[in-house]
Amino acid sequence: MAGHQSYEEQKALVVKGLLLLGTITIVEVIVALIAKGHMIPGVKFTHGFGHYLYMLLMIGFSIYKAYFIIFFFMHMAYEVRGLAVSVLLPTTLLVWAIIAFFQEGSSWGARRELIKEKDEQIVKPAPAGQPQGYLIPGTAGQTKG
Amino acid sequence: MADTSVTHAHETHEHDHHDDAALWEGGKEPFRASYGKLMMWYFLLSDAFTFAGFLIAYGALRFSMPTWPEADFVFASFPFWPGHHPLIFVTVMTFILIASSVTMVRAVQEGHRENQKGVVFWMFLTVLGGAAFLGSQAYEWTTLIATENMTVSQNPFGRHVADGVYLNPDGSEAKRENGQPLSFEKGESYILHMHGADITGMAFHDTEKPGEAMLNHEGTKIKYTTGPDAGRVSEASVGPKAFGALFFFITGFHGFHVFSGVLFLTIIMINAAGGVYAARRNGYEMVEKIGLYWHFVDLVWVFVFLVFYLL
Question: Which chain B residues touch A108 with a CB distance below 8 Å?
Fold first, then answer.
């Protein structure tokens, strides 16, 4: 409960929250616009190491915003430990879900490429006189007289 | 009885701490939270999994595609301000939601002080914020559906998988007005409408701008000049279809949460104004519970914003 703080402290928290969340959002958008090449001509982080760094930064900022909202706006910091653990601990299952489903997604992508490749393969028509259809292993090249 | 148990739960809990039998006599609240508040937390946990499922599905499908629309190209319109303004409007939407979350915190704080007028005032501002967010989303959706022709089953936005050039119907290379070839680079964004789309008044209607080729009929041919498909002529295709469905379902599901939040906030605000919660003398707990829900809606937006607009 919020009874742990004085009224003035509570109001200060609100101002802090507004400034903090607002500032992080502005920083996020500015970094995003720089990374996508809209702010500084010639500067772009859309591939490789710079892109990974950019994504990590964005995820980090978002997790910090989520932490602030849960612990201070939703008062999780002032609830008993058991409540916090029973609500927050199950969300760690999502770590598994993210790893598993993203790996699965990449695999779908690889298969899509394979299927496209097979679709576009030009199959040479069998030369006249050669057997067509299923070949019994070991009998290739033999023709029935 | 039920009213007083909330405020006195802290004191009674300390006395018979070691008496297990007393635990079954009632009047004690698990985790020192009221039933309603605890259940709101667990509802929000389950809702977090629903949203996580949606967002992870987005990620999995995105990982499975060779290309994916670029957010700064797709979300670039702003009301009464023509032109290309990447991510500016969604930033405004984010600010609206943060502001309404802050006013909600104030409403809960005034509730703890049993200040009825304060609760109603700050809840009213929160309702306004929620309505403003919904209005912004209506604008965003209208632009995407009516002007840019994105629907749950159609997505005109995409990125080229290799360098190439657009071809005229007769097979020759298309030229820009200044005589340069109408070419594109790998990774460049495009918006491609199928036949019948009305492109007049489009923010992107400027083929001189690099990366924003506009085509509005079926059967447009392109020729790749790099990559494994170099030299091959193929039909220009619309972007990954799943993008439209994912966007409308996920932001729609979030928008529906905002909408129901605004309804509940309004009901609770009217009740608070009518003195319903003042009579309960439990520190406006109902306001605290809808406050939890409202902050959660803001929390989800943090991740929707991350996944759709930033990454």
Answer: 60, 63-64
